Amino acid sequence: MGKKVLPPQATVRRLSIYLRCLNLLDEEGVSVISSRELAERLDLNPAQVRKDLAYFGEFGKRGVGYSVLKLRDHIIQILGLQKTRLVGIIGAGGRLGHALALYKGFEKRNFKVVALFDKDPHVLNQVYGEAGPIHHISELPRLVKALGIEILILCVPAEAIPEVFEYVLLSGARAVLNFAPVKLSSTEEVTVHNVDLAMELESLSYHLGIRETGLPNEWP
């Protein structure tokens, strides 16, 4: 029996795009869609769509296409979204953490923010949204275990990361979405995804420059 191959992270990210598209198709009353039609809606190659889905099994019928509802349900299972994932936000007293704490879109995707953390005494016990008061970061290990939090979102400055990540490792949380301007590595216990907003803006600036001046014959 052949060894299973883990799909690339880019494929997993595209599953989320497929899921959103399938939800829209269901709202439009579309029951069946081909890989070509799905690819056209998402500006992708049909072969890429088929290759992505093939990592997880066979879902469509040749010459017919994919059942929108069945494929949507399969992707929900693959992404582990058949149950609500509980989330905590560290750095909830800052502007980004505050905004994420108040964001209403998480629950539509089966994520629920249930606890907020910070160490700034000026924001402790303040209540944002439905997640309750902001707790001191030292409460993280206890509350992660008590509430069953699986995912932590880090919205802290770079200098706070060493202390914060120690608490994360002690907490037993299994996944981290890191917005701090410091790259964190996954461990055997914790999967980390880093989001560097400055890097994304720099990439956009590069593409704007190409549009403005064209691709140079040679770089300086």
From TrEMBL:
Residues 80-183 form the CoA-binding domain. Keywords: Cytoplasm, DNA-binding, NAD, Repressor, Transcription, Transcription regulation. Pfam families: CoA_binding (PF02629), Put_DNA-bind_N (PF06971). GO terms for cellular component: cytoplasm. InterPro entries: CoA-bd, NAD(P)-bd_dom_sf, Rex_DNA-bd_C_dom, Tscrpt_rep_Rex, WH-like_DNA-bd_sf, WH_DNA-bd_sf. One of its GO terms (biological process) is response to redox state. It is found in: Cytoplasm. GO terms for molecular function: DNA binding; DNA-binding transcription factor activity. Residues 17-56 bind DNA. Its main location: cytoplasm. SMART domains: CoA_binding. HAMAP family: Rex. Belongs to the transcriptional regulatory Rex family. Modulates transcription in response to changes in cellular NADH/NAD(+) redox state. Homodimer. NCBIfam families: PRK05472.2-3, PRK05472.2-4, PRK05472.2-5. This is Redox-sensing transcriptional repressor Rex.
